[in-house]
Amino acid sequence: MTSRYMKRALVLARRGLGTTSPNPMVGAVIVDPHGHVVAEGYHKKAGGPHAEVVALGRAGQAARGCTLYVTLEPCNHTGRTPPCTDAIIQSGIRRVIIATADPNPHVPKGGIERLRQSGIEVVVGDGADEARMLNRPFFTWSVVGRPWVTLKIALSLDGKVATTTGESKYLTSAQALQHAHELRRQHDAILVGSGTILTDDPHLTYRGRRQGSDPVRVILDSRGRVSAEAAVFQSESPAPTLVFTREDTSIEWERELFAVGAEVIRLSPGSDGHLSIPHVLSHLAERRILSVLVEGGPSIHAAFIAHHLADRWVGYLAPVIVGGVGAPSAVAGTGFSLDGAPRLHIETVARHGPDVVIDAQFLWTHAAAAVPSHVSRMEVH
């Protein structure tokens, strides 16, 4: 059971969606002994003040003797900001209610212990499931050591992503496209294969009002097929463009991409001759990229699913029938038996213009970042 004050803190935390990475989203609420909310705060962006400090600053002397509700264990180290534990102790807060402990292995622990040693009552677990659900990318990166991966697919009602002649642009509506760009804003990186660059020539940028940094653009090109003249390299976005390729691709091709601002990263191929998806994700995790939006194509989707490295599926279903035996489907490869087919839990089903958007989670997702069954829900709008 989540208290109403922690629910409010979780709502506040979500306001930082798309702007706090590589930090988690955190919200805080200060409540006096009579149950009145004294002050609130949330973490707006990486490098900015943490949620607890924002709330305490707004409360001032009124925080003394109060209870602080916060969605993640307060930090106990100096990074880009001072320790939140110091601010809490100095404020005179009597009790701290924490949704969940900080799982990040790269920072010193001890926030909970420090508060208790200072005579502050600490309770952990109020809204723990919801807090982990809110910060699934952060928990996946911290616990599993890789980014949280979302597969994004636009497809026809009969499951096709393009016609037999390769037409795929404008399959879905302008409303769905707007939602897809918001999805881009919520991720640290956008990843596509070379086939998508060659077929669609996308810019891989966020077209809405900029609230944080543009996502890093990631291209998987094992054979060095992408041209330096592609639109993705002509964009004015300051976001880096990373091109993963095999060790044996042309040096001259690498120089051409370097000249247009791309960084080429060479990896040893797997046994099948293709780039290793686990190695790509490991490299991105080292760069503190917590979430990746995979936009195709079908072979790339198949590779992530085959390695059990997809966490979320967002499918944009257009009310159109494409047909055709040769028309590509969302996931390429040899397919699965029904017994071995990946299973997903549908979280939400929503309408965006004439299209339906299905947001689902793969059931193999790591327990630390998974959505508990009693928290998950299916909403139809």
From TrEMBL:
Domain CMP/dCMP-type deaminase, first and last residues per copy: 1-123
InterPro entries per record: APOBEC/CMP_deaminase_Zn-bd, CMP_dCMP_dom, Cytidine_deaminase-like, DHFR-like_dom_sf, Eubact_RibD, RibD_C, RibDG_C, Riboflavin_Biosynth_HTPR
One Gene Ontology molecular-function label: NADP binding
Gene3D superfamilies: Cytidine Deaminase, domain 2, Dihydrofolate Reductase, subunit A
Listed EC numbers: 3.5.4.26, 1.1.1.193
Cofactor note: Binds 1 zinc ion.
Pathway: Cofactor biosynthesis; riboflavin biosynthesis; 5-amino-6-(D-ribitylamino)uracil from GTP: step 2/4; Cofactor biosynthesis; riboflavin biosynthesis; 5-amino-6-(D-ribitylamino)uracil from GTP: step 3/4
Keyword Acetylation annotated: no
Any single biological process term in GO: riboflavin biosynthetic process
Catalytic activity: 2,5-diamino-6-hydroxy-4-(5-phosphoribosylamino)-pyrimidine + H2O + H(+) = 5-amino-6-(5-phospho-D-ribosylamino)uracil + NH4(+); 5-amino-6-(5-phospho-D-ribitylamino)uracil + NADP(+) = 5-amino-6-(5-phospho-D-ribosylamino)uracil + NADPH + H(+)
PANTHER family: 2,5-DIAMINO-6-RIBOSYLAMINO-4(3H)-PYRIMIDINONE 5'-PHOSPHATE REDUCTASE, DIHYDROFOLATE REDUCTASE FAMILY PROTEIN (AFU_ORTHOLOGUE AFUA_8G06820)
Job of this protein: Converts 2,5-diamino-6-(ribosylamino)-4(3h)-pyrimidinone 5'-phosphate into 5-amino-6-(ribosylamino)-2,4(1h,3h)-pyrimidinedione 5'-phosphate.
NCBIfam families reported for this sequence: eubact_ribD, ribD_Cterm
Protein name per its UniProtKB record: Riboflavin biosynthesis protein RibD
Gene: ribD
